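Checklist before submission:
- one chain only
- standard amino acids only
- sequence pasted in full

Submission:
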Amino acid sequence: MADATEVRRGTFNADPHWETFRIAVLVGLAYYAGARIGLALTFSPMPLSVLWPPNALLLGALVVTPRRRWWAVFAGALPAHLFAELPHGVPTPLVLCWFASNASEALIGALVFRRFADNCELRTLRSAVAFCCAAAVAALLSSFLDAAFVQLVGWGTTDFATLWRIRVSSNLLATLTVVPVLVTWSTAELDVRRHVTPAQLMEIVCLVAGLFATSIVVFDSGVVDSGIPPTLLYLPVPFLVWAALRFGPALSSLAYAIVVFLVIWGAAHGRGPFLLAAVQNDPLPIQLFLSSVAVLLLLLAAAVVERREAERMLRGSEELFSTAFRQGPDAIAITRARDGGIVEANKRWLELLGYPSNAQSLATLGEHLSPASRDRVRSLKSEPGSAQETEVVLTDRQGGVHVALLVIAPVQLMGETCHITILRDITRQRQAEKDAYDQRRQLTHLTRVASLSDFSSTIAHELNQPLTAILSNAQAALRLFAHEPLNVAEIRAILVEIAESDKRAGLLIHHLRLLMKKGDEEFVQVDLNQLVRDVLDFVRSEFLVRTVELKTSYAPDLPQVRGDRVQLQQLLLNLVCNACEAMDAQTHGKVMEVSTSHEADGTVQVTVSDTGPGIPADRMDRVFEPFFTTKQSGLGMGLAICRRIATAHGGSLTVLSRPGEGATFQLALPQVLPGRRLEATAHFPADTTSTATAS
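Returned file contents:
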């Protein structure tokens, strides 16, 4: 709170030593002036003033000063206290004791006030109540010290209880009078100091003049004596209320200080309605009257300012909501909770749903929603809490279909429960996402086809083997049929070999069709061990042609993963291809290792390693970037698509390189938890699924 005050006053821009010196000097001058005023307002022969400003000035200074500079406040006040008290014959020990009690009161009051107030400007009810409580607590506690010091030194003849009571009422009145003036005029952004129009200035002059004149007549003239009716004591109150209502705590505290000074001055000089109190050396009636007025005035001014600020914030909020409602890019409507009727809708709502700008009758939102969206919105409204969000499909009056993001928030409108309904049209966004997805799927498919073209000779060789075997066995069977008697056992064996060769050719063609197929993703449970075997079996001739030695290691009881079988085959096929091509320049020592494993973190891993030259360190960070390739004829999309496939399956694809010794790619996929039910997004035909499983 003090730091914010310091920023507002600009002290952070000043030299810290000069600022500390300035605080000490200002506090010293104010303390000395306050002590002189306090001595002038003392009812002789009592050693205590009716109102003692120095302690209140100390308290106010502590409130508006950062804590790290409180020592400067006390350092400036001590010499001023000595100069003010010692020339008047007050014993030196008592002078020092009084400073200690004044300092203790200021310290207690400042700590309590800053602890419980929400600001130090007395512009809220909480801060006003906290200040009144802090003033009372500080006066009650510090007065024990003050009365004890007077008794200890033996200054005066008043007993301890009377001294304590007078000290409490005197210090409380001083705090309620001086601190509000000091705090509000030094820290607050005052209404009376900013944007004051000539009319307001004239009003302030009239207010102060009327208050001053009324207070002099009532409290400081011979016109009214102590026998006046009690009601005449409150003649200045309307002016105080006027100041509080119109100008807040700043002017009301200053006006109240004027009244306090005139009341005590008049009584001290034998004038006004409190003359009897002065004669009897009993200032309590004066203090009780003024303190009660001070508390009421502080609370009234704070309540008025707080309400005014709340009204200003409410108007600002209403203007902000109105601007957002009418000019915002989203379609917004206020609907009744009981029937969904439209209370008010903005222009964007009318445009989205196809209504003319001057439409008087609007259909409910539910009439524009699809059945599935209508059920979703109904369940959304039934859920308690704040704003709820969902995606809906709606149809405008012309039949156009829109995809929108719907947000519903409850609100009270004139005592009735309503909803603020916001629609953000995301039709273009969803269409763009669909187009991007289709393009990615097309690119993935083309990359798969391109990678298969590299295996054209291998595929031809793989197909030629079973076809040649079928032809040879069929010719042998024909020759056996020409001999008598028929060798049924040998013919049966030949037919079995023909069936096996045909099955191998069929499986090869089936795998080609799967890899060439273009369709939606199908996420099912996949056995990675079997999938790796299928891929390696599919390209086994490639290893023979390239003279690559294949080493495999399959983890037993490997958990299954959830994924699209074709995409995972494409990923592994690409990794195997890259490993083979990385070792093309070698004449010997071409070894590829493919292994599966189950890791402790719950993932299933497939590792593909080669003994090629590895990946240079300056290219490691770019191997998965689109269009980055180390091949002369490569597109640079293979590994980028492989990583995208791994990410889409909730896994990861990483690479480790050993320069001169080869590279290792690791595919990690989350395992399927036992008992978890998977729902495929699409379905293979029955014969395709069974064949793939058999392979």
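Reviewer check: The chain is about 60% helix and 10% strand.
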